[in-house]
Every structure is written in C-alpha cells, then in structure tokens.
Amino acid sequence: MKKSLLALAIAASATAPAYASTAISGGIWLNHQQTTEDTGSDNSEREASTLGNVNSEALILYIDHQQEDSDWQLSAEWRTGQGSFSDSANNNSGDTSGFHKLWVGYNFSEDRQLVIGKSQVPFGFGTINFWPGDMGLGGYGDQLDVGVKFSDKQDAISYDLAWYISDDFGASSTDTMDDNGHWGSSSTYRKVNTAVANIGYDLSPNSTVGLSYQKGELQDLTPTSDDSDSTFGGHNAWDVWYTGTYGNLGVMAQVMGTQRDGLDKIGAGADEVKTLRQSLTVSYATGPFNYYVEYTGVASDTDGNDADDMVAFAPGVSYNYGPGWIYAEYLTQSNYLDSNSDVADSTGDDAKFSAMYLTIDYYF
Q: Which residue among 73, 146, 282, 346 sits deepest, i.e. has the most Cβ atoms within 10 Å of its Cβ?
C-alpha cells in the first residue's frame, strides 16, 4: 500500500556497466489495531481485555533500475509478513510473500511510457489512508494487475490504455496484495482479459477531472469445471473522478458503477451483480502533518439483494517523522463488500464494524 520515499543508491564497480540509477531500498511497517465494535464477533471484547492486536508486520524490498543511455527501466516491490496485505489462500505463493508490483517499462519521452508486467490499473483512484484500506472502493481501488499499459500526456490531456491478462501471477491467484478478496477466489473465479481506458483533463495546474472504463471476462476456477481455462460471463465498470488541491487543502471525489455477469453459471452469485458507488476524500497538509477524512458509500442494484447500503468513514492523521510516517486512523462502517464486490451483511441486519489503528513505517 505504501511506496518507498527513501532509496539507497548503489554505485557500480569499475568493471561493471555504468548505470544512470540503481536504487535498492527497504521498509517495514507495524500496526496496532483496537476493535471497538464488530457485529457477530467477540473481537471487540477480546481486544479490550488484551489492549488490541499487534499482528500486522511486514518487510518490503524495493528495486528500481535504469541503465545509462537506455530508455528501459525496472520497478519492483516485494513484500512478506502478516501485514503484506496478501491473501495466502488465494494468491500465487501460498503464503504472505509476493510481488506487489513487478514491471519493465520503456520511456518514449518524459510523459510517454509503455509498461509490461504487474502494474497499477489506471482506473479512478484509491483511498489515501493506510490501514482502513479501500473500504467501499473494494475491487476497484488500489488494483495492480498483470498485463501491458501505455500512458501519455498531451498538453492538458493525459490518458492510459491497458490490457490485463489476469489480476496476479499464476494460474488461479485472485490477489492484488492490497485490495484483495473482491474478485472471487482460487476455487470460484477471477477476472481475465480486461481492457482499461482512462483519460484526464487538467482544469488547472492543480485540478483534474477524468473518466475511466474497464471491461473484461471471468475465468472459471471451480474444482468441478471440465476446463479451468474456460471463460464465462463478464465484467465492466465506469468511473467519473475529480482531484484538486487548493493551497493546503486536497479534494478527491468519484462516482462509480460496476457490473458482473453470469456468476450464477458457476454457483458463485447472481446472474447480474451491480453496484453504484461514491467516495470523497478531503485532506489538509501542514508541515509534517496530513489530516484527512474519507467517505465511501455503496448501493447494491442486484436482484434479490436486500442488504442496506455499505457506508464507511475513515478520519486520520499522518506525521512524517523523517524515515517514515506515524498514522492514527479510525474506521467505522456498516455492512461490507463480499467476494463479488457486492454489498453484504453477516447477521441479516446491518453489520457494524469500528476500529482504531496506530501504524508506524520506516524506510531505509
């Protein structure tokens, strides 16, 4: 979820080729969670008696490289640990280790680039908090998939065109190592063959409005399938978004519609799963502090789904202490998003969850 801001430059030896830049850096993060409300669970009572949980540690390795007199570059981020935001039951490694990103890029110019590998999906934007995550943007926020992406900027217009074979390395992984658990599972389905288009227009040097669209297929991963390579149904989504800064104030807003078709064919859901979503982030940066509050809301338009809207709020503050950041964040939400990224509850009534998070990261 976090990108390294500190890199260690590695000087090439006299017998090795000269490099314009080679950066190898690392980082750790530790999180303390205090659950205050969790419908249908005793987590809040248990954590009240134990003063919470510290069980989300992670070690991160970053590698960025570009050879002298070459337009090719490499960018990679590898994570391991319980706090790596990976799902061992549905990822490629079978544990909490894996590549968050791994791509090779060619720079045609300063603004024009082609990327091959696992990279950020150019669709709207994710949240800016650390631990509460994408909340109501689940499945369409902080996504990194495997494929090819072309990015360019012409005057006030920037755009991306991408094609993603799958959402992760491997034959059955549905894990993006940040926002996971919203694209089926390794025993049901995953998204494949997804085309993405994104365009942004600069209203001013500090504000941009844009439109994103994606459309693709779903791959059958059920154990009873005669052909695990078969595709069925499909998925599509659109997003209208805005980002702007006004002095120290930052504003990010978007409205999104999502749809998945044919999940009933493999017994994974309704014939047509549809949601309408919105999100708003307001932040204020001053010195080493950044204060923010984020809202997301999701309404299901799926036939037969009577769950009330999912609503989530996450206020927080981050402090830059030098080699990293310290975060204090709070999450409160009603209901949640299931593996089909549809609104769900766990009790037949609104499911409530609230928690306080204290996080520190350190980069070296």
A: 146
